[in-house]
């Protein structure tokens, strides 16, 4: 059976990895995301980027466009159909997700302010990433604040660095050296990404500016390479459904809906689903699988795109009856023809204690 499954694998079965952004407050996590998401605003082009529920999806074509400053001939290999970036690093449900020990993120960007170095929440993020064994890169952000920095908007980092005067280059090197020492104190071997010869052993530092966009092409290319190199074969392909409730929301015209992150597998309209509810397991049927309109139409309020089918990884809004008592952080399962529904009900409810505990704390 396993052999047959392997043989059946095609490009259509590739799964998009999930990337999370972590780090201390005010290091520029939100700003970096905004900058990556930014499209050709003047032309009103969304470039295939779609804002989703709690996440943003970047398809291969868009990623290619974004790394063009360092890959003008389009030589980058792509074994991933795209990248799902989680939008809400500080989202309350993430406490729930963490308590369940889920590995929602396949890869992470740890943002560090180059002017401040490693701060308290940076250290907490490092601990979390290590516990989950999540590969990560470090965005050494706010390089435009280095004294005398001359910016080349959206440029490749090394070109920008070469354009700086000697004093600025020295300050950069000095701050990088200090950061490397600080990482060493945490037992991590950090190196500038272009000096990194071993992704598995060393953490890559990629200098960025969320204001000027410098280094962002470098950061995206690094993410792509790191996922492709470090993500297990198992996670490269769609397999068993894995889905987590991010938020329970009442939407005009739809009633109570749940926003979920589908981190693995495929889901269909009409699927019978099981999830954890405050008063017991909820068993219901998917009425609609929804995502917001593409970016350029985001202003069209209350209108969603309907999908017959969705593939991981993706952020989706599910409309279904009986979701009022659903709990954020809950795992969601789809009942297949051979599945034991009772068993699934028990399984989703086994999370309840942990979920309620973390709701109490927050
Ligand atoms: P978050 O708390 O990590 O999400 O940080 P924000 O994205 O909200 O940024 C915090 C502050 O730092 C804001 O005032 C941003 O404008 C500023 N900021 C973020 N990135 C950069 C950067 O690359 N350069 C400069 N100069 N300021 C930045």
UniProtKB/TrEMBL annotation:
It is found in: Cytoplasm. It comes from the Eukaryota. Transmembrane segments: none annotated. Residues 14-232 form the Tr-type G domain. Belongs to the TRAFAC class translation factor GTPase superfamily. Classic translation factor GTPase family. IF-2 subfamily. This is Eukaryotic translation initiation factor 5B. It comes from Meira miltonrushii. The chain holds residues 561 to 922 of 1169 of the full protein.
């Amino acid at each position: 059976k396993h052999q047959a499954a392997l043989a059946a694998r095609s490009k259509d079965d590739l799964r998009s990895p999930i990337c999370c952004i972590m780090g201390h407050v005010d290091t520029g996590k939100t700003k970096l995301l905004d900058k990556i998401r930014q499209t050709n605003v003047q032309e009103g082009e969304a470039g295939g980027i779609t804002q989703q529920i709690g996440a943003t999806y970047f398809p291969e074509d868009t990623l290619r466009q974004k790394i063009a400053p360092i890959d003008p001939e389009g030589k980058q290999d792509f074994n991933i159909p795209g990248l799902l970036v989680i939008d809400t690093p500080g989202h309350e449900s993430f406490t729930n997700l963490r308590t369940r020990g889920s590995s929602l993120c396949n890869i992470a960007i740890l943002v560090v302010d180059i002017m401040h170095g490693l701060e308290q929440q940076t250290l907490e993020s490092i601990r979390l990433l290590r516990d989950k064994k999540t590969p990560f890169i470090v965005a050494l952000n706010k390089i435009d604040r280095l004294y005398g920095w001359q910016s080349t908007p959206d440029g490749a980092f090394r070109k920008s660095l070469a354009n700086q005067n000697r004093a600025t280059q020295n300050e950069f090197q000095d701050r990088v050296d200090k950061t490397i020492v600080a990482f060493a104190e945490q037992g991590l071997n950090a190196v500038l990404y272009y000096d990194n010869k071993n992704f598995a052993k060393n953490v890559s530092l990629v200098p960025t500016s969320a204001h000027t966009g410098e280094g962002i092409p470098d950061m995206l290319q690094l993410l792509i390479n790191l996922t492709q190199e470090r993500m297990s074969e198992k996670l490269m392909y769609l397999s068993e459904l894995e889905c987590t409730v991010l938020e329970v929301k009442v939407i005009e015209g739809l009633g109570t809906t749940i926003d979920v992150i589908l981190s693995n597998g495929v889901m269909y309209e009409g699927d019978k689903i099981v999830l954890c509810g405050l008063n017991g397991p909820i068993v219901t049927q998917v009425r609609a699988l929804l995502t917001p309109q593409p970016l350029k139409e985001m202003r069209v309020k209350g209108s969603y795109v309907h999908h017959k089918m969705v593939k991981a990884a993706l952020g989706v809004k599910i409309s279904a009856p009986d979701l009022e008592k659903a709990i954020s952080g809950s795992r969601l399962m789809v009942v297949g023809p051979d599945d034991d529904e009772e068993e699934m009900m028990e399984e989703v409810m086994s999370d309840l204690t942990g979920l309620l505990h973390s709701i109490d704390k927050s």
